[in-house]
Fold this sequence. Notes:
This protein is of the alpha+beta class.
Amino acid sequence: MRNNSESNSNDQSKTISKKSFSYRQADKQNQRLKHKSFSLSNTKQTLLITDVEVTKDMILTGCETSRASRDVAKNMPFTPRIRILDPVTNIYANLEMKDFVKYLGLMIDSNLSWKYHIESICHKISKSIGIIAKIRHYVPRRVLLSVYNSLIVPYLTYGVCAWGNCALTFQRKIVILQKRALRLIYFSKSKEHTVPFFLKSNCLPLPSLFFRDCSYLLYDINRQTAPVSILNQFVKTSHIHNYRTRSVSSDSFYVKFSRTDKMHAFFSRIGAQIWNSIPYSIKLLKRSSFRKKIKELLLNFLRSEDDYVEVSRLIKLFNTLG
């Protein structure tokens, strides 16, 4: 009995010593993170990031070993306090942390999910749909289509190359509103198929609008007429290697390698794929003819598929034309 009690006491002391060792390691790491401060200097202002508060309880929770405590401290999210130096008053002011920022009409959130921007667009489009619902009994259809093109389409096309390839959940919200507006214009039932209405009105759903506007912008990039900040995001395949491959002969852009799903949706990558899928004979057309041909093909694909085609599917359909 004494041996069993002694062995139990030894085991308990060992576990206590392991836990105390992990706590000491976590305390040291907490002190290093808490007192760490650094400054980023610029010509006009200085960013001073200090007082990074890391709670001890979040680090110590579930840490049975020192290795676990290091992993938790490394992967634990934290929000620093950022203070900006005002060069006029020479006083540091705290910078407020927000979930999103509105810049040039776009709601840019911290995760680049475009959630808040989609919600803003849906709210504005819903107001325009209410206007269509109220006046549709008193004006002809051409006026309703003019209201759709003037009050709804601008919200869909503004900056669509940046946010148009967002998550499919957000894309479907906008497509649903587009279908609702066209059902009201054509006095159809709530569950009636709306692809014929898109074709009659010569309108495109959101994925096709994204493909169309990206191809228009890439046409300018290929002609070196786009802004320099956008030109620097794309590189011709001929500048990567000198082999006579199909991509080099078709004046294609180099598709950058990406490891994450978020990078797959970047404009610098999806834009190169869109441009490479367009046949070389269409790329040689003049600007007006190029735009007319792209929209014509998108409407033809919408008619043949009889469904709302996603961007990845549109790229495959254009590849079949080459």
